[in-house]
Structure formats: C-alpha cells, structure tokens
Amino acid sequence: xxxxxEKLPASQLALEIEIxxxxxxxxxxxVVKDLTQSANIPGFRKGKVxxxxxxxxxxxxxxxxxxxxxxxxxxxxxxxxxxxxxxxGNYQLRSEYEQLAxxxxxxxxxxxxxxxxxxPEVKLGDYKNLQVQAEEVKADxxxxxxxxxxxxxxxxxxxxxxxxPAAMGDTTVIDYEGRLAESDELIxxxxxxDFELELAEGKFIEGMVEGIVGMNLGExxxxxxxxxxxYAREDLSEKTAKFTVTxxxxxxxxxxxxxxxxxxxxxxxxxxxxxxxxLRKQYEEEAEAQTKTNMEQAIVQxxxxxxxxELPETMIDEEIQLILKQSVMQISQMGVDVxxxxxxxxxxxxxxxxxxxxxxxLQQNLALQExxxxxxxxxxxxxxxxxxxxxxRKQLEEKQQEYDEERLQEYVEEDLRQEKTLAWLREQATxxxxxxxxxxxxxxxxxxxxxxxSEPAE
Length: 458
What we know:
- By secondary structure, the protein is of the alpha+beta class.
- It folds into three domains: 2-119, Alpha-Beta Plaits (2-Layer Sandwich); 157-254, Chitinase A, domain 3, CATH 3.10.50.40; 300-452, no CATH class.
- Helix content is 49%, strand content 21%.
- The chain is built from 14 helices and 13 strands.
- It has helices at residues 21-38, 51-58, 60-82, 97-103, 142-154, 208-212, 260-265, 272-305, 313-333, 338-341, 344-374, 382-398, 405-428, 442-454, and strands spanning 2-8, 12-19, 88-93, 110-117, 122-123, 131-136, 157-160, 171-180, 186-198, 220-226, 240-254, 308-309, 430-435.
- The strands form four sheets. Strands 7, 8, 9, 10 and 11 form a five-stranded antiparallel beta sheet that branches. The chain has a four-stranded antiparallel beta sheet with strand order 1-2-4-3. The chain has a two-stranded antiparallel ribbon with strand order 5-12.
- Helix 11 (344-374) crosses helix 13 (405-428) and helix 12 crosses helix 13 (405-428).
- It starts with a strand and ends with a helix.
- 17% of the residues are buried.
- Pfam families: FKBP_C (PF00254), Trigger_C (PF05698), Trigger_N (PF05697).
- It comes from Dactylococcopsis salina (strain PCC 8305) (Myxobactron salinum).
- One of its GO terms (molecular function) is peptidyl-prolyl cis-trans isomerase activity.
- It is found in: Cytoplasm.
C-alpha cells in the first residue's frame, strides 16, 4: 500500500492511498460471493446463481460501488497503522465518489484520498519571559464586621411592637388588595390576608415597603405603586396600581449581643476576638488565592496569545460535549428534570454558546502540556501521583461517588502536571500587580464603547 501525506489547515492530514490490484480484485470477488450466497433470484437456489446472471441482475456499477465500500474503511485503518498516525475521529472522503466508481477496475491499482483530524501542533512563543498585568485582590477590612452582623441578623428573634410605627427592618403581617389606578379594576391575584412581609429593600413591588414604613398597628392605608418595565405579568408592566393595605401585626428583630457567648454558640470559637481573627485570616487567604488565580489566568492568556495552535473540529466537538455534560449534571443536581427541560433547540444553543469556552480551554491545556514536554522537571513523580490519587480517592468515597481507577490516575497526573507548570510559569513571568477593578475584560470594553457611541451629542 502506497500512502502520501499532506498537511492541511485546522490540524488535518490528507492521505492519498493507493491499493494494489490484488486487493481490488479480492474485494470485488468477495462482494460477488456474498451476493451469490444471499441473493433471492427466481429460478435459482441460494448459492447457485451463475455469475453472469448475478451481474446482469445487480449491474456492474452497483457491484463496483459495493466493492469500493468494502475497501475504504479497512484501507484507511491500514494506512493509519502503517504510517503510525494518531488519528482523531473518523476519516472524511476527499475524492468524488462518482469519479472513484469510474476509476475502479477489479484487478487494477485504485487510488483515493481522505482527510483526518490529528492532534494539533503547538508552537510556543517565548514562554520563559512573559510580562503581564494582574489584579491584586485585598481583603476588605469591613468584611469581618459585615459577616458578624449578618450572623446576628440570622440569629435574631422577633418581638412584638406596639408603641411605635413600622420601620425598615421590621417584619409585618398585612392584608392587601390591589386595583388598577386608571380603571379601579381589581387586579387578579393581587389580594392576600395575613401576608408576612419583611420591610427591606427589594421586597415586594418597589414603593410598597416604603409606603408601609410609618404605618401604625391596625391602620389601613392606600399605597400607589408602579409595576416595573418587563414585569412577569406583561399586562401589568409599567402600569400604576393602588394597594389598600392594613397593618395587622408588627414585629422587630432583637439581635443577640456580639460577645464571647455568641462567638462560642454560633461561631464555634472560645472568644469573639478569636472568631474575628479566624475570619480575618480566612478573608486574607481567599484574597491571596484569588490574586494567584488572576496571575495564572493572565499568564495563560498571554501564553496562548503568542502561541500557534490550530484546533481540529473533532477535538472541539469533544470538549463541547464535555462542557454540556457538566452543565446537565449541574442542572440535574438542582432537582430539574433535564429530559423535560432540554429541548433540541436548547441543546443546539448551548453548543453554540459553549464553543468559545471549549476553544479557550483546549488552547490553554495544550499550551501548558507543551511546556511540560519541553521542561522535564514539570512532570510529576510516581510518589506525587500516588499521594494525590489517594487524596482524591478518599474524597470520592466520602461522597459515595463511583470512579474508574485508570481515569482517576490519568486525571491526577494531568492535574499535577498542570499545577507544577503554572507554578513554574509564575516564577518565570514578570507580573505587575494592579489594583482590583483596574483591568477591563474585552466584553466590558466593548460594552463601554457601545455605550459611549450611543450617547447623544451635546
């Protein structure tokens, strides 16, 4: 078998394959023999149909087409093995089928051409001297006190209020009835009795909470509100309504004291100061971790931008399928019946939206893999793989999740290799840390430019 290779764009390889006359004759004879054994022709028993009758009944073109089909797949597989090619997915026929049928003659050499997706060639730039900017995240000093206040709110008890009007933060019980302001028509579904409402921003329709603030227990009041644009009920969008509200019960939150007892009961720390210190440390570690992530993302983005990686469609399709599978798992974990939720149109839309992420993930992973190939010290040791595998195995067993040991080993090895490569790149790169919020993403810049262009001239 003669095989000629030609590189094509998008990480494809063209193969021109020439099959010897002995194989073409053998394929044709096999087709004839199989038809002889299986054909039902009146006047002849199976297996006893004369060759001339068989050819006349089915026609030479049909027999030749069947012989070509008999040759293609095995010949491509043999060529891939002979040339030691790492093929991705199935082959695509490049030759015109009609032309192949015309050229095919049993007993004579036969040529055809196919294309294959192959692993992409990764051409790295100067990855040892990357210069990037990354946002430095710092812990907000107010985070600790905000968190402690939230915990107090969560642990608060409600106590009856009788000696003052309703105020923001209170919890009320109300009766209400809503009518359209223009027609005084009763709004369907806009009535309730003994409805519990917390007086806080974002609760109920805008204007309702503000209208209740200042009401006294037992008071009835008419409150005017306007339904927002894009309201769930289109018939009410941007319409004004009058709500007749009666305040039937009023309670205020009584917050627990922020002291050592509270720290021990809720925060599981001996003292309040110990809890504060633990929270400060936690927020600082989270900020450091996010800064590290920002640095790695900036480095990898710069790495990909100066690299040449042509991705084959087979690889992109597989990555899209992986992203979809992960998305479906997340949806199902939320208790949603994915079989009813996911329509054909929705899946196609998800595929289209997932493509940029799939391409980005593949480019990043391939660039990092190429660096680990060129820098031998970045490959994890057997001891590192063993320890990490044991750690992951325990986590999966605790969650009672099934796993394949071979795939677990592959995942651990690749994860460790990527982790070591990223750490090595951080040491090699020059990273300028800038304040959080300084760097804009491309989408944010585009939105800002669009907004500026749409502003009327003064």
